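Translate structure to sequence.
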């Protein structure tokens, strides 16, 4: 055995093994630093240097889809949502103002360190995404759902959904896009507005939803899911 291999370090370990371990540690550290430096693929929601678009692609897309057209009804579709509306929702989650369970369980932690600039970028990314058709809802009481959306229920003092959300459910400013949104998500949110104060930024909806019967809520939710994308 060569003189190099026979040299020892304290504790009886071979010098070559010690050097190898040190090199390995340095290599791992270098890889870690390289990963942190790769801002274009970072999932670090606590790093203000990561672009909002990158977070939309690397983090938000896991639930909402790369193009904002989520498949699971547990997560709302974000494609073509009004940018101001998305900004308001993200800031409401960040400030713990929006407290509905389906939202805060995921969004409080993800949004708590987002900067205003990142929020603006995320909102813009999904606003610019192209919405895809969503299969129509169950179709039960379709005529009721259409009537609530287009004309409201005057006898119950319920205004038409279209009066704020647009004739085609396309949304505007602080009124979200409803066309193609998952029926189950819409139904749950209407019950949140009707029965709780967990979404204070949408206080106007508490008044609107207050007089809706459960069957009417289900009908209008099914109807808007099937509205054609525009």
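Result:
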């Amino acid at each position: 055995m060569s003189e190099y291999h026979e040299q020892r370090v304290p504790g009886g370990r071979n010098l070559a093994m010690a050097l190898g371990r040190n090199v390995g540690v340095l290599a791992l550290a270098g890889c870690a630093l390289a990963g942190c430096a790769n801002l274009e693929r970072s999932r670090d929601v606590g790093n203000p240097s990561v672009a909002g678009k990158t977070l939309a692609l690397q983090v938000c897309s896991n639930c909402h889809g790369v193009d904002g057209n989520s498949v699971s009804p547990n997560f709302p579709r974000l494609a073509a949502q009004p940018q101001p509306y998305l900004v308001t929702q993200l800031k409401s989650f960040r400030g713990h103002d929006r407290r509905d369970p389906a939202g805060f369980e995921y969004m409080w932690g993800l949004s708590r360190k987002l900067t205003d600039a990142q929020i603006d970028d995320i909102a813009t990314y999904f606003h610019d995404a192209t919405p895809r058709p969503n299969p129509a809802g169950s179709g039960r009481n379709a005529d009721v759902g259409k009537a609530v959306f287009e004309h409201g229920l005057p006898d119950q003092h319920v205004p038409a959904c279209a009066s704020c959300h647009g004739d085609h459910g396309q949304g505007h400013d602080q009124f979200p896009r409803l066309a193609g949104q998952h029926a189950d998500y819409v139904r749950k949110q209407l019950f949140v507005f009707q029965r709780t104060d967990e979404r204070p930024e949408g206080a106007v909806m508490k008044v609107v939803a207050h007089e809706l019967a459960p069957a009417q809520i289900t009908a209008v939710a099914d109807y808007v899911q099937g509205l054609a994308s525009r």
